């Protein structure tokens, strides 16, 4: 099974709210989006996770997620923005249903990716977007190096996103969430030889069935009211003994803080 970035590169018919970005998109069947959810998750209200945002192309197609951490700063995955220009990227804030016109569509004035990023599987898969304008709202604090308890095996964390509901499926019309426990470093290393506890953290259940998937990349993994991870990569989606892999935010706290200001 190939290693899978949690980004979806197919932009056709993803149901982004057209009116707010100035285009028409293909409607998405609500029935196909409502079940089975993220993978093994449930619908989420934007009011419970107002800092969860999604990234879209300038034509309006959603391709990744992110987290609003300041009025004009969004944390996401470096692989989401690799090769992209700021002018071709939009951030949609406060929109639960991609077919609605709720919330704000913000332009991006700058993209910073970790200078050591090469591939998601080699780590450093973090990026910060600077918005063209500041937006009011609720911002999610970053996990710090002292937040070791949030990375302890068994800690329940919640991942959010509009990604695919199964490997190879289309992305979701609605914001979804899934609760997954943080796994031990040993468990993750057994699953993935590339795993590094200095730059990554894994979360999932041994039996599979609960996970992030394509299109969720860059979105938040939250525990203790803090951003502990950014969705990065994995072996397929929700497979037994292959948890999702996330960028370990606490490991990048200093460099992210310097970018966020």
UniProtKB/TrEMBL annotation:
UniProt KW keywords: Disulfide bond, Hydrolase, Protease, Serine protease, Signal
PROSITE patterns: TRYPSIN_DOM (PS50240), TRYPSIN_HIS (PS00134), TRYPSIN_SER (PS00135)
Keyword GTP-binding set for record: no
GO function term, MF aspect, one: serine-type endopeptidase activity
The Peptidase S1 domain, residue ranges: 38-261
GO biological process entries: proteolysis
Organism whose genome encodes this protein: Actinosynnema mirum (strain ATCC 29888 / DSM 43827 / JCM 3225 / NBRC 14064 / NCIMB 13271 / NRRL B-12336 / IMRU 3971 / 101)
Name the UniProt record assigns to this protein: Peptidase S1 and S6 chymotrypsin/Hap
Residues annotated as signal peptide: 1-31
Family per similarity comment: Belongs to the peptidase S1 family.
Manganese as UniProt keyword: no
InterPro entries in UniProt: Peptidase_S1 (IPR050430), Peptidase_S1_PA (IPR009003), Peptidase_S1_PA_chymotrypsin (IPR043504), Peptidase_S1A (IPR001314), Trypsin_dom (IPR001254), TRYPSIN_HIS (IPR018114), TRYPSIN_SER (IPR033116)
